[in-house]
Amino acid sequence: MLEQIEKYLNQETSLSERQGFENQLLTNKELAKEFAFYMQAKVANQEIGKEKRKAEFEELRKEISNRSAGKIKPMIWISGIAASIILALGFWWFLTLNSPKTDTLADTYIQEHFENLPVKMDGNTDSLQIGLRLFNEQKLSEAQTIFEDILQRKNSDSEAIKYAGITALRLKKYDKAIGYFQSLSRQKNLYSNPGKFYQALTLIKQHSANKKEVKFLLKAVIDNNLEGNSEARKLIISYQ
User: Fold this and answer.
1) What is the pLDDT of residues 13-54, one digit of tens each?
2) What separation in angstroms does the CA of 180 have from each of 116, 168, 236?
3) Model confidence pLDDT, tens digit, residues 123-147
4) Which of 38, 93, 147, 199 pairs as cysteine with 181 (C-beta 3.0–4.6 A)?
5) Rounded Cα distance, 64 and 71, in Å
6) What share of the chain in percent tops pLDDT 70?
7) What is the CATH number of domain 103-238?
8) Nearest to 108 by CA among 204, 19, 199
9) Burial annotation 59-95 (CB, 10 A radius, 16+ → b, else e)
10) In which residue ranges of the chain is CATH 1.25.40.10 found?
11) 132 compared with 59, residue with greater pLDDT
């Protein structure tokens, strides 16, 4: 059980495994109790070496258990939502202490996904492909002109909207990027829509004061399993 908890907190599990563990926390009282003790031990023993951690945890768990007997009210399983909130509050502080900074996560995603964009290799050349090639040559302003010209002719072109937003983000024209990503997120006929996630990413880079909006967007991505789901989980943990 301890190994399962550590793998979850160290993000060494797949998305399906994480979701399964979180579901267990809501239904398995023994696991939830062990998890609560683990978090208390973690916070109290951050300076303890890795090799001593498990032994110290066991001792501290027993001490906390004896000291808290009869004082801590049993966890009330009101509903799945209420239990989820209680658990989230219980380990939010610890996770934020040990998570990479939000800016670092955002920059890493941008570098990995927005440095080069996919270009078709079938030999056909249209305006969109020209814009993508310019983008990959780091001619961002020229690429932006191409994407915006496409949107002048067809303002609902989802690919042009997405790439215009990404280019604006790379150019640090954050307000313009947000506008494009908002437009993208409103399109309902897409198989995969990253609009909300990209909008949240841009707000983070903009150092927006509206943290509630960022968290709302990230939560929407997670709850609706939208594109960027796994990255949104990491960002929402680190975003304070």
Assistant:
1) 777 777 777 777 667 777 777 766 766 665 555 445 555 656
2) 19, 9, 22
3) 556 899 999 999 999 999 999 999 9
4) 199
5) 11
6) 68
7) 1.25.40.10
8) 204
9) ebbeebeeeeeeeeeeeeeeeeeebeebbeebbeebe
10) 103-238
11) 132
